Amino acid sequence: MSSEKQSIWWLVGANLVYSLMAFLVRYASYIDSFKVTLFRFAIGMAILGTLAITKKITLEFTKSFILILRGLFGGVAVFVYYWSILNIGLARGTMISNSSTIFATIIGIFVLKESVSFLKMFFIFLTLYGLYLMVGSGAVGAVNIKEGIAILGAVISGAANVIIKKARETESTHSVFFSQCVIGFWLVLIPANLIPIKMNIGGGFILLAIGVTAAVGQLMTTYAYKFNTVATASLISTLHPVFNLVIGLTIFNEPFTSKSFIGMVIVLVSCYMVVMSEDYTKKIHKFIDKKAKELIIKQGKK
Questions:
Q1: Quick one: residue 197, left, alpha or beta (phi over 0 = left, psi -120 to 50 = alpha)?
Q2: Which domain holds residue 194?
């Protein structure tokens, strides 16, 4: 199996881990998004710092500017994502957040000069249509302030994904993630300590679990970005809202319609097709070439 195909499975696994993290955020809704974000980044720094001290990994930084950008955009995107889950709902907040797919793809075309075939572009728009069906009729039209903030977060998240791809050209997985943790930590440090909260030891363990799952998912995603285009990686990330929709339905009793089910199927099929489109295209070309050669041989015999 090629490195690209292996990285696709890494992305699928990362989205499962992210869904577990989102479940924990929704479950502990009494903890504000500033504290959740702070713990995510603090635990990420702790994990990477421990690995660096024990010489399991090496933290080296080549291009400071792009790493700072990664931290700024990624830090804000993470906060808005947690905020959306708490203020809009697990399923709906995730759906809007993952509309970053189209923003990442468009930005990737202009910034990274990535080529996107007609077939992939078709499934990009088909995926967005699937997400629209999953969100429901209320996702388009009159956008309230909360939805507007969530959409802005999606745009920032799309830019962050492009920056990850660019950063992976010169930086390691660990360095890219560490930069997000450090910059993000400073962004939310003060506001996280201004909001009072009563939290027992159970809440502390939940925050710990959120930080650990976030770190694992982020490392898996950042590693996979080295072997995939932004368009492909972003489309695989649409599995995340599908997983969260199921969690929202079965655990938190969030509304679920037939349109949402159809949208989920469209997203799954689109993700599969965008990954396998090149393989299918090669097979089609081989089949056409084979038939063309057979026809030429037959014509020659005549």
A1: beta
A2: 3-301
